[in-house]
Specification:
Helix content is 37%, strand content 18%. The chain is of the alpha/beta class.
């Protein structure tokens, strides 16, 4: 009897963790940005701090949740194609010497991410689709919007 109860609790935890990691993500932008769509290679360059300015001259800041957050697993696999430890090193390297305007900014919550992107001209970020509000603009990725079939950052 005790074994069954323990098994149920374990199964519940496993399902809960897999659902948390399988969120649908969206690429969002500051409303003042002229960026309405990015290709996957362009996003990779932004995420690695290799793009300093947008075509309109605004400085680029990429805002993301911590690479160690479970909901970022999909993003690390599909965009960075690197393990978490190497992504952390890449972020440190990209931000070196840019204390006043980091290339990549790490935040603690989706709400904070949306608020940062909304308040920083030139900022883009990746966030859970259900955290999007009117303060940001959704950016097409590889010609698709979140929840469209074939969208790269679809969690399931």
């Amino acid at each position: 009897m005790r074994y069954r109860q323990t098994l149920r609790v374990c199964l519940f935890l496993i399902v809960s963790l897999s659902l948390a990691a399988a969120r649908d993500l969206a690429l969002v932008s500051n409303k003042a940005n002229s960026v309405s769509a990015l290709t996957v290679p362009e996003l990779v360059k932004v995420c690695k701090g290799q793009t300093n300015r947008w075509p309109d001259g605004k400085s680029v800041t990429f805002v993301m949740r911590s690479p160690s957050a479970p909901e970022m697993k999909l993003f690390l696999e599909k965009i960075y194609e690197l393990p978490e430890s190497e992504v952390k090193d890449l972020i440190a390297t990209a931000n070196h010497g840019r204390a006043g305007h980091p290339a990549i900014m790490i935040v603690d919550s989706d709400e904070e991410l949306v608020n940062r992107v909304a308040s920083i001209p030139g900022a883009v970020g990746v966030v859970d689709v259900y955290a999007i509000n009117s303060g940001v603009t959704v950016v097409k990725l590889a010609g698709k919007l979140p929840l469209e079939p074939g969208y790269l950052l679809h969690g399931n």
